Structures are given as structure tokens and as C-alpha cells.
Amino acid sequence: MTRTFPVLRKWMSFAAAMVLSMLSLALLAIVTPVAVAQEPTSIPRAMTIVDLIDLPGIGDPALAPDGSSVVYLRSGSDWKKNRRVSHLWRVGRDGSQSAQLTFGEKGESDPTFAPDGRAIAFVAERDGDKTEQIYLLPTAGGEARRLFEHPTSPSSLAFSPDGAFLYFLAANEKTKVQKERAEAKDDVFAFDEEYQQRHLWRVALAEPTDGGRKAVKLTDGDYSVSRYRLSRDGAHLVFHRTPTPRFDDSDESEVWIAAADASDPKRLTDNAVNESGASLSPDGKTVLFVAGANDHFEGYYNDNLFTVPATGGPSKLLLPEMPYEVGQAEWSQDGQAILF
Questions:
Q1: pLDDT digits (tens, 9 = 90+) for 302-325
Q2: Using an 8 Å Cβ cutoff, are 85 and 75 in contact?
Q3: What's 254's DSSP letter?
Q4: Cα(290)–Cα(304) distance, rounded to whole angstroms?
Q5: Helical H runs in 39-100?
């Protein structure tokens, strides 16, 4: 296996990209005047930093349950507000019928289809919202409506397979003391020491009978849930639990499994590396995850594939001799193979 240093590798990649960009701009600056002198009407101007910033960005694709279309985020520059804003777009799988679905002033994020394909859930902050909230947009057309009001911004939306629940992550609400300090402008704190733990919630999608829809907090305690995945049958969830939401604590994250309501949690890993992308096999027997480690769970190696029994036991490195790095991995439909 190839041993690497992730942080250094990321900075080297960033530095290399910046150097290439600067060299490209420098070459354009050198070549363009000569070319213009020979054929002034046929050579376009050199690309500028402003042009680069104005390039649209594409991300967060969500496939419709019937496979007919994809919803995705397209981001652009808002120079008046000095930020980039993302909106939901939808396009047919053959590339036709591309259309913008949302136009919120502050943009939208986290799109995901309901299992029946009749609605798209997303996160946005709109008029009257104190913070970002979850909205549902009918795919047949119409206005998006806020699902309910949550005190902190939701993220990482996921429907249960039966469409009965919508899961999400959200930070804990600030304490009364923290709110009073903020109001009094007494909000000076040591760097990286002011944070709220982030936990897993779910909200029932059936119309409430008591007049108000409320989310239920599934995990709680002095730790954070950084990522999670529901099993395909909706009976279990696999999640990554960290001491805090801080980046420096990511190496202390571990993989856990629990029932769909987060009851009966069981820790599956115990090491000093950061795992990601944990998911349960279709037969419910094995958990797949990615980690930058060797078979002894020593760190600073290329990200590779690992499995661990869902009932607990030692983790297994699947491709010890592979010279490449794994980005993400998924179980095949029948669970007999892993796609990565």
C-alpha cells in the first residue's frame, strides 16, 4: 500500500492547481499580445480571475426513484451579496428538459427525492425563517412549503425507504447562557472551543393530528454524529460518531450501528483513523466503510475498502495491494459485489 499524509497531500494538490492556473494565466499573458498583433480579430482575451469565479458549479446530484431525471445544485456568483448562491435544477436522464426549480434569494441545498418521487426535500432559508429549514417541493409543480420549524439548521437529509420519515443532522441549540452572552456581545472565546454537538433527528411526514409537526432527537450525548446511512430495508442505520464536530477530532470517529430509531447502538470499530461512507449490506450482515489505513489500522495510507461484521468483530482490509485510492464505495443491488 502507498503511505501518504492526507493533509500534506491536499495542500500539495491545491498548491499544484494554483501553480498550474498561474502558469496558464502567465502563458496567456505572454502569448496573447503576439497573437493579437498577427490576427487581432481571431484571438479571444485571456481568462481572468473574475471569469473563473463566475463559472457555474454543479453538485449534489439526486436521482429520481424511477430513474427518469436528476435534481442537482447549480451555483453561481452573486456579486452584490459577495457570495455564491446555489439553486435546484432538474434534467432528464437523456440531458433534455433542463429547468431551474428554485429561485430563493439565499439559495438552496441538500436536495433529495421522496421514495415515491412525488416531492423533493431541500434546505433553505426563506422569508420568516430564523435559520435554514427543510422544505418540500412537489415534483408535479407548485410552491415549496416548509415542513416544520427547527431551532438550528438541518443538513444531510434522507427519507426512510417507506417514505414515513425524513432523517437529518442538526447541531444542538445554544444554551440559555450562550444566548445571553451573545445578546450581551460577550462572545469572545478561544479558537475552536465554541461549538455545539451535532445529532441525528427524524420527523414523521404524516400530517400531525395535534396541529404541529415536531422532530424527534434520535441520538444525544457529549459527542457528534458526522455522517449516517439508512439500510435499504429501513430497519437499521449506520453512523459515524466523533467526540466533537471539530476537524481535529475526525481521526477519533468510529463506526456504529443501531436500529432505525437509534436504539440498541453498537460500536463496530475502535482505532485511530478516520472512517467514512459506512453502509450496511443488503442482507444486513456486513458493514462497508472506507479508511486511510493498512490492515493494522496504522494511519496515513491511501483510503481503502474495509468491511466489519454488523454484529461486531475484527475489520477486514479488502484490497491490501491496490496502488490507488478509493473515493467512495457502494454495495451492488444484490450485495454480492462492491462498486467503488
A1: 999 999 999 999 999 999 999 999
A2: yes
A3: E
A4: 5
A5: 49-54
Would the CA dihedral through 257, 263, 267, 273 be positive or negative?
positive
Cα(72)–Cα(90) distance, rounded to whole angstroms? 6
- Chain centre distance of CA 238: 15
All three cell numbers of 212: 404541529
Pairing status of strand 57-63 against strand 154-159: unpaired
pLDDT score, position 210: 72
Q: What is the pLDDT of residues 269-294, one digit of tens each?
A: 999 999 999 999 999 999 999 999 99
User: Which residues on neighbouring strands pair with residue 88, listed in sequence order?
Assistant: 73
Which pLDDT band, with edges at 50, 70 and 90, does 184 fall under?
A: confident
* Under 8 Å between Cβ of 6 and 13: no
Strand partners, 92: 69
User: Which element (helix H / strand E) includes 127?
Assistant: none
pTM, two decimals, is 0.83
Q: What is the pLDDT of residues 6-59, one digit of tens each?
A: 444 444 454 455 544 544 444 444 444 444 445 556 778 899 999 999 999 999
- CA atoms of 215 and 148, how far apart (whole Å): 8
The secondary structure of residue 3, as a DSSP letter, is B
CA distance 249 to 253: 7
What residue type is 56 in one-letter code?
P
